[in-house]
Amino acid sequence: MLKPFYSFTFCLILFFVAGHSIYPQTIYDHDTGNLTVSIYDNGWIGHDAAHSNGNGVIFEVNADACWAAGMLYGDPILGAAGMMGYGTPILDMTNIVPFSFDSSANFNQISTFQMSDFTLFNMRVTQTTYSNAGDDFVFIKYSFLNGSGNNYSDLYFGIFIDWDVGTALLNRGGIDESRNLIYQWENGGSNDSNYYGIIAFNGLDGGTTGDFIPTTRIDIYNWMTVLTPPLAMDLDHRTIVGDGPYSLQNGETLVVGFGVVAGNNLADLQANTDIAQSVWESIIVPVELTSFTANVNHSGQVELNWSTATELNNQLFEIERRTTEEQFATIGYVEGHGTTTEPQNYSYTDVTMGTGIYFYRLKQLDFLGSYEYFDEIEVDVTGPLTFNLEQNYPNPFNPTTVIKYSVLESGNIRLSVYNLIGEEVAVLVDGFSDAGFFEVTFDASSLPSGAYFYRLQSGNSVVAKKMLLMK
Questions:
Q1: What does the CA dihedral 205, 115, 82, 234 come to, rounded to 10 degrees?
Q2: 390, 400, 458 from 470: Cα distances, Å
Q3: Domain containing residue 308
Q4: Which of 245, 266, 285 is the last residue before a domain boundary?
Q5: Helix H or strand E segment including 218
Q6: Which residues contact 19 (CB under 8 A, 6 or more apart)?
Q7: For a 10 Å CB count at each end of the chain, is N or C smaller?
Q8: Three-state helix/strand/coil letters over 247-295
Q9: Coil, strand, or helix at residue 349?
Q10: Is the pLDDT of residue 311 over 80?
Q11: Is 326 in the same domain as 211?
Q12: In this model, does residue 434 exceed pLDDT 90?
């Protein structure tokens, strides 16, 4: 059954590969004071496979407990993509938007970047990582935008991690299904007495710990799909955590989340996992967006539609728009449904004043002031479908009103106003016009109250409407 949707080092040198902007690899340490987790802007966690840089995962005053880790996703046809680097190297992700940083009332470290695989799935992945002082866990949220033109099914998302807790050859693994947790510890050693784990916040549906090194993409995908008991012996264990299956249509976005968690013993690890689950559900993903689409209607207006699966403390959505030359600006608001477990549908219509490329995104705000951005979508307003004259607004009016119209193809047009006996009392537009959507304000201050007609002519095409001036 498919699961529902719920979704430092810095350098400014810019490169271009296959038409896409990419940025040099950078690393950022999320440090709560108790737990440090290094995050790379290409999907690595802790270290890269060569163990050449990054601080890894450090709990309290112990040594680094992570050799290498990374995000994974895949389906049964193409296998796994992401960042792994063991066996057949899975090193697919390229950074396309560099790190940005923020903080909030709930987290004093928030880092965000975007990456893409450009190969198997052509997913654009937004990774946002959250940490707060004093916590024993760090959150990693992935937003997967399917821009491939294809529809995928049986998708699984996960984390690969090679824990080296204390003496690596003395490591053991465990699974706590009730907490969606897979963990490791040093068995009988004296170098690190703590427990380390990965939480799958959307559900633990596959994975294990063992001395495995998958050799193909399909092998890796299969490890994510079946939950297997850990190998019950002291080994240099590796962990795979899987969440799925999902179906992701072209243009849709899916949000999944994982947590790096540590504790002084198993009971402490489980208690910290419970706290992390509560924070995740109440703060990080208060809204589970399942779709966000746009279409252009016959009047050249962009109709936005989106749906949610569940909502928690959802106050409202801000609708933001930009062009290729401009930055995002807020153009409207739609109220949320507060807290609900029922699917909800939303819509907003934007009247764009001309042809061109527009980008839209949603900013969701909760009642506590926290907010989350969802991935942007692109809309091409190529031109009106009809020669059209809309009803003026407001109507009746005093003394001004707005008249909107669309022109199918470039040429001379004339927009004029007549009284009831057919006399032309105003000319609003007269001359050459490109194809597109337009509006004009009519000021009738000098005219008496009464009914008037306004008439649009382009070549042999004529359309007229009636309006009422009331002073």
A1: -70
A2: 20, 10, 30
A3: 292-381
A4: 285
A5: helix 217-225
A6: none
A7: N
A8: EECCCCEEEEEEEEEEECCHHHHHHHHHHHHHHHHHHHCCEEEEEEEEE
A9: strand
A10: yes
A11: no
A12: no
